[in-house]
Design goal:
about 280 residues; alpha+beta; Aminopeptidase; 3-stranded antiparallel β-sheet; about 40% helix; about 20% strand
């Protein structure tokens, strides 16, 4: 399944994406016999290096045919770029940071790709290992089936425990106010940056970056699935659930316009109504 092209373009656009206000990117395409057979980006994330006090450069937006020589040429270019910018470690994939899609799929190829999660051919891990990359960190995603959700005894127990915690800590739960979307986004950003500060590879998101991502997601969010946890009116947590929009863009070949947009809206409506 091909991602939406306009979304990829916006992510790479140095004028539109505020990530590039503090970072830089360089892009390469690999060609063989006149055909494009690979791509890669070299990325210098200044905010990452300031926050972690290190000299790490990144690669991202990596795609390649199953050819070790082509892959090596791409990684060589990214490595040269980050060395030229004073970095001594190459890490990835980051598209373009840990606040976006990142990591390499190494298990779960029998599942369909889902929104905001990387997906790649099964031969990618071998291409990276052939170049000399080693695992930096396990990134885990959890799949919850309907059997768990429909387990009435388990869900009742979870509700009892959560109700006790809410009462003990004087926590209230409310849905997002879409009429105050701009301010709600900033409340989410404050909680997000505080809560994730100690996570591996985390980089605090700027206000512009968070607004950029929030505006991209606004089309697909359902306010019924965005909740704040508050103590005395102050947000101390939030939860965000999204419909699997990848199911709505299947068969669109990455094109939202001119007619893909109509198909997307119809498919999105079916997704939400079926949950």
């Amino acid at each position: 399944m091909e991602p939406l092209r306009f979304d990829v373009k916006n992510n790479l656009d140095e004028k539109k994406n505020p990530f590039y206000k503090h970072s830089k990117i360089k892009l390469w395409l690999a060609k063989k016999n006149g055909e494009i057979v690979g791509r890669i980006a070299g990325i210098i994330n200044d905010n990452h290096n300031k926050f972690h006090n290190d000299k790490v450069g990144f690669f991202g937006f990596y795609e390649c045919i199953n050819d070790k020589n082509v892959s090596k040429m791409l990684f060589d270019k990214a490595a040269e770029f980050i060395k030229e910018n004073g970095m001594d470690i190459l890490r990835g994939p980051m598209n373009p940071s840990t606040n976006d899609e990142c990591g390499l799929l190494v298990e779960g190829f029998n599942k369909s790709p889902v929104m905001l999660m990387t997906y790649n051919p099964e031969y990618y891990p071998q291409l990276l290992e052939d170049y000399g990359f080693v695992k930096a960190k396990d990134l885990l995603a959890f799949w919850i089936t309907s059997d768990v959700v429909n387990d009435e005894a388990m869900m009742a127990k979870l509700k009892r425990v959560s109700d006790l915690i809410l009462k003990k800590e004087n926590i209230t739960i409310r849905n997002v106010n879409m009429k105050d979307f701009k301010n709600e986004v900033q409340r989410i950003r404050e909680v997000y940056n505080d809560a994730w500060e100690l996570n591996w590879g985390f980089v605090p998101m700027t206000e512009d970056e968070f607004n950029f991502i929030a505006n991209n997601l606004k089309l697909v969010v359902d306010p019924d699935y965005i909740e704040f946890a508050e103590i005395n009116g102050k947000p101390v947590g939030f939860s965000l659930a999204l419909p699997d929009v990848n199911q709505a863009i299947k068969g669109m070949n990455g094109k939202l316009f001119p007619f893909g947009f109509i198909k997307f809206l119809l498919n999105k409506k079916k997704l939400i109504s079926s949950e």
